[in-house]
Amino acid sequence: MASGAQRRIKSISYAKYGYIFILPFFIVYFFFQLWPLINTFVLSFKDFTGDESVGLANYKAILQGVGTKMTLDSGAEFKIADRTARVIHENFLNAFKNTIILWVGNFIPQIILSLSLAVWFTDAQLKIPGKGFFKIVMYLPNIITAASVAVLFLQLCGEAENVPGSLNLLLNKMGIVSRDAVSEKYDTIKFITGVWQSRGVVMFIQTWMWFGNTMIMLMSGIQGINPSLFEAASIDGASSGQVFRKITFPLLSPIMAYTLVTSMIGGLQMFDIPYLYHKDPNRTSTNLKTVAVYIYEYFHDQVDPKMGFAGCASVMLFIVTLILGCIAFYLTRDKDEIAKKKQRKKIAKQNKRESKQFGGLTI
């Protein structure tokens, strides 16, 4: 029989200490993420300055490009002009298009490169010297600040006819970019102001910065696969391509789903590189204006800040991200596990029906 001291020890619950340790995270999350998110939803239903309620007027203007007239809480009337609504609508559509182009353009080469390197580095039959060194070098761009990278590529991709950037000078040495012998001016490639040239550079930067992080995640997923599966495939004489198609890729579906969703969230919220990679002080070029840049510019417009529209665009970006994330999880779900779960439920129901036939007793 347990003594009184032993019973007291058993009655002590240490669960509260776990809640105390995770409390700082929830406090920080509430003040810096959840509360601003709630305020953004509230702001999306208010006017330009964020003072008066206008209902769904901001959403109608952004989605339809049609000005609306409504009565404010104070009794005054507020009118979104048709021209203003049309400009805001067109700017939002252009920003959303740019966002999708930049994300898809960097995600596809990023996942191909990361998956290829992850399979290569985790192949037990390949004895690659300096494997750890290459992993570190490929991950290093991920820890460099976006501002530093933007400034670096602005210098590399300079377009000045008299003193172009290093990349144009290199292309001149290769005979791709010409130079006039009389005026000594270069026929530079517009890596900064060109539509697809600038987009291509931003896609390359995003791929270069993030492929190392994606590679590490995919490597962890591959290393979590049971090694006996690869050994059995090797004994059966399966080729490396067959091993990848039949074992590696199907069993990577959970980590692939995670990579897709996190990349999509980061891609739809892309701000730093597209915003910093320009030389136009007035930002008249719209080639790289993503939805995040659109929100920032409307919120911080020194002449006519439109806080209501910025909040509305933020909410719409949140909804689009949520919908696409749910679709991604649905498409990458484990169908075999779902089928097994349904089979287990079916067997449980059948056993329950059989037990009722015998008065609740199983035989």
Overview of this protein structure:
This protein has 363 residues and is mainly alpha-helical. Helices cover 67% and strands 2% of the residues. The chain is built from 15 helices and two strands. The protein has helices at 4-11, 15-43, 57-64, 82-122, 131-139, 146-156, 166-173, 195-223, 227-235, 240-251, 253-268, 272-276, 291-299, 307-331, 335-357; strands at residues 69-71, 77-79. The chain has a two-stranded antiparallel ribbon. A hairpin with a 5-residue loop joins strand 1 and strand 2. The longest helix has 41 residues, at 82-122. The protein starts with a helix and ends in a 6-residue tail after the last helix. The model has no long low-confidence stretch (mean pLDDT 82).
